[in-house]
Structure formats: C-alpha cells, structure tokens
Design goal:
The chain is α/β, with parallel strands linked by helices. The protein contains twelve helices and 19 strands. The strands form four sheets. The chain has an eight-stranded mixed beta sheet. It has a six-stranded mixed beta sheet with strand order 8-2-1-12-19-18. A three-stranded antiparallel beta sheet has the order 9-10-11, with no helix packed on it. Helix 3 crosses helix 10.
Length: 416
C-alpha cells in the first residue's frame, strides 16, 4: 500500500470518515487452512505476517477470541530493550530491537518506535554489581549498555532525585538503543500487512478445543464459529496459553499473574527517557500524548483476570514520587492490568511441542512486548520449517526437563 501525499492525507482526515476503507478484511472462516495462529496479539499477527512474507504460506488464519490487540499487546507499558544477561537472551531480544528499528518502513505503518534510551537504576551494592555484570555481558554480545555514575544518571534524566530518598541512586545501566513504541499501532500494522498478503484475520473466534488425528498429530481446532482444519497450529495466546495447550493434553510450566500499569493526566513533554527501578518496583516513561506511563510489579497471586490489587499500584506511585518529586501533584487518569505467563527461569518458550504440528510461543512474563518482531520472526520460521531458528533453538520446552535453564529473573524483574 502506497502512502498518501500530505494533501491527500489532510483531505481524508477532514472528510468525516467518508470513503475510508477498513485496515483489514473481516472474512468468514474457511473450513481448512494450511496453518492457524491462535492469538491476535503482536506475536501471533507478526508470525502470520512473516509466514506469508518470508515463507510464502498465504492460506493462513489468525484466530482471536476478542478483538485485535485486546490482550497483552494493548495492555502493557511499551518498553523496548535488549540488555538481558545470557547469550541466548541477548541474541533473541537484540534480534527484536534490530527489527524494531526498521519496522515502520517494512510495514508502511508508523509504529512510533522511539529510541529515547532505557535507564535502569541501582539502589544497593548488589544492584550495582548485578547491573555492571549485565553491562559487561552485553558488550561481549555486541549489545549496547553502559554504566553511569549517579551524577551522569541525573544528567541524562534531570528530573531524577538521586540522593534525598529512602533508596539513594548509586548508579544506573543505560541502553541508548532502548525506548518505546505504540502498542496498538504495532498490532494494527502487522494486521494490515498480513491481510494484504492474504492472511485471514478472524476476530470473535474463541478456540474451544484442539482436534488430533489417530496418530496424535493436530488436524484442526473447534471454535465458537465452527470447526477449522489445519495441519499446523501455532499458539501465541499470552496469559491464556496454558489453557489452550491443555486442550491438546500438554501441561506447561507456566503461572499466570496480573500485571498492572497506569497513566497520569497529560502534561507537556518533560520526561526524556525510560527509567526503571527494580528494587523499588516502578518504572516510568512519557507517551506521545503527554501521559506519564507508570508500571508496577506483578501481583502476588495467580489469576486470569485483567485487574490487580490496589496496594500494588499505590506502592509504585509512592516510589515514583520519591524518585521524581515534581510529579506528586499529578492526577492519575486510568489504570489497567494484563496477564503475564511466567516460566520457572523467566525466559520464554518458542518451540515445537510433543504433539506433531503444534507449536507454542509463550512464557514471556513481563518481556513480551519488547520481543514482538523478533519473537514473531523466529516463531514463523519454526512453524514453516518444523524446526527452530538458531536464535530460538535454546528456548525449548524440554529445557525444564534437561536442566538447561536460561535464568533471567534478574534481567526481567518488574520490567515490561
């Protein structure tokens, strides 16, 4: 699709929506496809797009029980970074960052990717040691990360209070290539691009069962809109993945928790970057609309609800007010919750399953949005080739049986 000229875009914007076309079709599901993707978030839509664009599987459908981007893709704090500790994680997340850098041009859709920098604060000696270890490990893997003194951290983010607080800032790790993107634009961009390649995007179509043939391989799904047959099924259903996979008889090592965020009333641009504090469980950036986007830690209980306890957000706001005293008089506009599915080692699963023809992309915890294009790209490869891409080869389901864990608990923390 060619972009509009400035005059044509202005004319369409003032037309009262007359003559506007939908961004993607709303087809009835076919009886059969070559492949199905369960989950209409960024990971699922992206996988369908790359399957069509790079692997030439165009008879594909994306099945979404609600509306496109209505799950975790539209319910997060949009932070993007790749400063993870282990080699396997650095490769995966930096693959995503490299794709983020050109995604707007590739999709011909402005995903509003802004590399404003992500700064992670150290408040204790242990914090400083851990982050310096990350800095050195990242540099070995070709991932940008640098250590800042407290004064350098304040120079990068002048609003930061580095001293007169309960947990003084002892330093910070900064990834300048990190930043934010617009979550709904990512979903819409992938949806439009996939639709243009012939992918059917079917909303309000909940999967209620997975059909298997006499040999145990998948042969299709039961949905609220009828039976749909396919020899390959990729599941990327975020917090509900374990529910879907249980329909095929597969138990996953996942726990699902609520994760909350909130935004303030809009103000003029005052915040230059993303700041995260794992120790006091809060992180903050400013949206293009002027809202301060604030995230907290996960709730302590497992749940499939998209809401959480008030005390979690209260503690996050207390931390933000200590770090940035000038925000104390701001009013909060709204809050929301998502569902994070967490593995024992806080790293994802992107792999084949013991059921032939069934593939899974899950377990992202609080790191799913930042990995969207990279995860979708290697998941599509895995489905198309029935074997993992070299980047996601370590992220198997079998690693929990074999003890080959990728323990990113320190890198994940409360980060989103």
């Amino acid at each position: 699709m060619q972009p509009f000229s400035g005059l044509a875009l202005l004319r369409r914007g003032l037309s009262g929506q007359r003559g506007w076309t939908t961004q993607w079709r709303s087809p009835e599901p076919k009886a059969a496809y070559d492949a199905l993707i369960v989950g209409g978030g960024g990971h699922g839509l992206g996988a369908a797009y790359y399957l069509a664009r790079e692997h030439h599987l165009t008879n594909i459908a994306v099945l979404e029980k609600g509306w496109i981007g209505g799950g975790n893709t539209g319910r997060n704090t949009t932070i993007i970074r790749s400063n993870y500790l282990f080699d396997e994680s650095a490769a995966l997340y930096d693959h995503a960052v490299r794709l983020w850098e050109h995604l707007s041009q590739v999709l011909n859709y402005n995903v509003m990717f802004s590399q404003r920098g992500v700064m992670m604060l150290a408040h204790t000696v242990h914090d400083a040691q851990v982050f310096k270890r990350h800095v050195h490990a990242n540099r070995v893997n070709g991932v940008d990360n640098e250590w800042l003194t407290p004064a350098e951290a304040k120079a990068f983010c002048p609003l930061l209070n580095i001293g007169n607080i309960r947990y003084p800032v002892l330093g910070a790790a900064l990834q300048r290539r990190g930043g934010t993107a617009r979550h709904d634009a990512v979903a819409w961009g992938y949806a439009r691009a996939a639709d243009a390649l012939g992918v059917d995007i079917i909303e309000n179509c909940e999967v209620t069962g997975i059909r298997r043939d006499a040999g145990g391989a998948v042969e299709g799904v039961e949905t609220t809109r009828g039976t749909i047959r396919a020899p390959r099924i990729g599941v990327a259903a975020s917090g509900h993945t374990s529910v879907i996979m249980k329909m095929a008889g597969i138990e996953l090592p996942l726990e699902s928790y609520p994760l909350q965020a909130l935004v303030s009333e809009p103000v003029k641009p005052v915040f230059p970057c993303v700041v995260m504090s794992n120790t006091i469980h809060a992180y903050i950036s400013q949206s293009d609309k002027g809202e301060l986007v604030i995230g907290a830690g996960t709730d302590a209980y497992t749940s499939y609800t998209q809401r959480g306890g008030l005390h979690i957000t209260s503690h996050a706001l207390e931390a933000i007010c200590e770090l940035f005293p000038m925000f104390r008089r701001l009013r909060m506009l709204r809050n929301w919750g998502g569902i994070v599915d967490v593995t024992p080692d806080r790293s994802p699963i992107i792999a084949r399953t013991p059921v032939p023809g069934l593939y899974v992309n899950c377990g992202w915890g609080t790191g799913g949005f930042k990995a969207t294009p990279g995860s979708a790209h290697v998941f599509a490869w895995t489905i198309a080739h029935d074997e993992p891409h070299p980047i996601n080869a370590p992220f198997t389901l079998e690693r929990f049986r074999d003890g080959r864990l990728i323990d990113e608990a320190a890198a994940a923390a409360v980060a989103h």
